[in-house]
Amino acid sequence: MKNNITKMTVINVLSILCLGWLATAFYKGNESFADFIWNQTDGFAVEIPILPFIAMCFFGALSYVHMKKLSKEKKSFKSFILPPEFSEQDERERAITARACRNSYIILAYLVPLIVLILAFEPVYERIIPSLSIWIVLLIPLVQYLSYYFTIRRQES
Question: How sure is the predictor about 4, in pLDDT bands with cuts at 50, 70 and 90?
Answer without folding.
Answer: confident
